[in-house]
Design goal:
Low-confidence stretches: none
Distance between the termini: 31 Å
CATH superfamily: Ferritin, core subunit, four-helix bundle
Helix content: 55-70%
Strand content: under 5%
Structural class: mainly alpha
CATH architecture: Up-down Bundle
Radius of gyration: 15 Å
Shape: globular
Number of helices: 4
Largest sheet: none
Mean pLDDT: 94
Order of helices and strands: HHHH
Amino acid sequence: MSKALRPLKAAQDALAAEHAAVFVLAHLLGRTSASAAPDLAGRLRAGYVLHRARRDQLLRLVRDQDAAPVAAETLYDLPPSDTAAEVRSAADTLEERCSAVYATMVGATWGGARQWALRALTESAVGRIAYGAAPQTWPGLPELEG
């Protein structure tokens, strides 16, 4: 039996990651002062809007395959977020996780779905850089980093 991930499973995994991203980003945004850290608050707000849009697109993608979308959890573990540094670190970790699911989705899909997943992977990789992470040659695939 093949170990390859099926396109629907990859989309469901990405959807689960986006549910978590929306929840966590809302929390981080609520913990960030727009007056004390306007750049960070603006980046979190933009990320929240982007992740909500991705979540909604994935919901449609899954439904278009006549499947029931994976539901959001009722609660997610929230990272430490008492300082701007903790918020940036938590947002970076969130984007790292999204990069991993999108890298997997790129490998499991083709055509328009693959292009969409590649764009999402790129956006998450750029998001990591905006939160202070170093650029990676293979975002979402740390095992390939040299």
